[in-house]
Design goal:
homodimer, four-stranded parallel β-sheet, 35% helix, alpha/beta, Rossmann fold
Amino acid sequence: MAKPNAFYAQSGGVTAVINASACGVIETARKHRDKIGKLYAGRHGILGALTEDLIDTSKESEAAIRALRHTPAGAFGSARYKLKGLEQNRAEYERLIDVFRAHNIRYFFYNGGGDSQDTAYKVSQIGEQLAYPIQCVGIPKTVDNDLPLTDCCPGFGSVAKYVATSIREAGFDVASMAKTSTKVFVLEVMGRHAGWITAACGLAADKPGAVPHILLFPEIPFEPQKFLERVDQTVKEKGYCVIGVSEGLQDAEGKFLSESGLRDAFGHAQLGGVAPVIANLVRERLGYKYHWAVADYLQRAARHIASRTDVAQAYAMGKAAVEFALKGHNAVMPIVVRKSSKPYVWKVGMVSLADVANQEKMLPRDFITPDGFGITAKCRRYLEPLIAGEDFPPFKNGLPDYVTLRNIAVPKKLKTAFKV
Amino acid sequence: MAKPNAFYAQSGGVTAVINASACGVIETARKHRDKIGKLYAGRHGILGALTEDLIDTSKESEAAIRALRHTPAGAFGSARYKLKGLEQNRAEYERLIDVFRAHNIRYFFYNGGGDSQDTAYKVSQIGEQLAYPIQCVGIPKTVDNDLPLTDCCPGFGSVAKYVATSIREAGFDVASMAKTSTKVFVLEVMGRHAGWITAACGLAADKPGAVPHILLFPEIPFEPQKFLERVDQTVKEKGYCVIGVSEGLQDAEGKFLSESGLRDAFGHAQLGGVAPVIANLVRERLGYKYHWAVADYLQRAARHIASRTDVAQAYAMGKAAVEFALKGHNAVMPIVVRKSSKPYVWKVGMVSLADVANQEKMLPRDFITPDGFGITAKCRRYLEPLIAGEDFPPFKNGLPDYVTLRNIAVPKKLKTAFKV
């Protein structure tokens, strides 16, 4: 019998280190050629499995796979696509099995966040329900850091390092200029539901009074008056005020601030951009000169300032996923287990996908200061190790030298197409 | 007679490397203690001179001064303040001389852009006109790269490296996601009048078809129809489209796009933010899902990804300024002279401030492709050496370890205050 093959797919929003997990998966699979035949990747994630658009990773050189470790985003393409339940869309699962059977795929590695681990869990169940033996292992990934059970999510540490670095640097700028120019600076960061990335901005404030002065969390309903008073007080005391705000900031009625204010010339609501809303509020009510920045994809793609810890964990999760599969596990996911914070010691653990799927880990209230505008010492103790260490990519002609894979398609074996 | 003292001030918008110039000035002055007594810095630039708020840099340790080389923004505070002509505001010049005389200041080093060099030039003239001997040397600085005569301006190479790196990284992200999500990404960069920073985005496109696909320069009037056709064509061919846009993009009537569209809930125009205007236009007319980012101060403060070439030139300009002064020059500015592009060889030159003041060096038309959406090979040849090499700052606890100086004030000697 031919050696079983494996399938790997990237899912959901990409990160600076999801390719480091891919690197861990592929390099580990290559070390076990006696047990795993080919490792196929889904072009555009799970869509690649449904449409039988598989990439043969064996066509990539060792150097190219090694370079994945320092290349941001999803080298095989990712997808925002959630499988429905087996009852609602049995055809999708039957198609997956058709493709897996045609290509002798017995291992399924799915690299994503909460929604994706739900998909991974559902796929893990089809072995029993549709009588096709497949071992399914999830690999955690999300900049939002909102997966349960794991100490942190690969992808988060690097975005955390980026936003803390960026707000510190912008803070030095504003401090220089405040006497005659900009007095209030607002940086908008990701994290629509959970304030982990907003909290990470607070790491820059490692001395009393240091930047950022105010954080606006999605967990804390926005109170304009209280906020404006704090801004005014900060400008009067320090000469300037630097603010980090979550894209998911909501008012007391649960309405996103980003959708509340701005309209284009045609009267349509402007999607996205809470920073300009906050900045305009400061101008209208306090009259201070302001600047604002929206980092958007820059923050989650910023491999040039990735956390060494994050890269190592991302790689370790990919490696562990293959090792778990080879040990016979199904419906599991490797996690990061923290042994201690100072010094930071972590190891790889394992949890059941059934316990992971569709749960969000929110920022605990005791990670936010009582006034709602900052992070506590407990939060700092948790976050600090996750941004530790640098892992600069190689540079060529002054720019990070990232790899683009050949991504050669596996010849199709099925006669039927599948419409997704 | 007491040794003459020197005055150094930072002026205008700060950069990732203006402190490297300060480092060059101070370290060089310290090597010539036989000729220069104290080096005073103006707190908040020229305001420090007018208000007799001088910082005694001799109170800073060698290590602190060395750390200026890797610290962004203006360590002594900068100012947006332009001196009027001697005829319009003689009182200001007389005050400067009062302060200089009281503190035996005979050297004036002024670190800034076009406006600032105009101020430096005016100050250089007061020796003759108001009978106070002072040697005045400008030090070039501006992220906009718009000073004439010098090959480039310290500060520009680092912002260029940042925007090219950022748009490349965001491009990898969008490429991963485009199949099921974002198809158009817009990054807004600085450079209100000259498109040098926009052009620098184009450095990321070092292979045919690579990101960015479209650049929108302030020098090229925006034609919505032509732009939308190119976006549509790019998405259809490549699956996605990445755009770099100058904050100073104007329509055919010379109106800033950033001021043309968005209004807040009260109907007030939203200041700043051409990226959301462009992104909304794409959504309205083509229906593609988009994301946008506005880097704002992040780009000019990003010392963590500074260009090694830029840092070296910034330091060299500061060092040369002191050396020029010691050789007896007045009303001059050191510049970067390019000897060759491949390999990149440069040396320090000298020009007269009279030739520098109030001139803007625009992006030449032959640096922009005929269609107006990209950069030419000639432009790339000019830009590439300026982003070459990395010069990472030291990191501590996962973040760049920047210095904050003690900035101890020199005791005042004048009895009168001065209102600016």
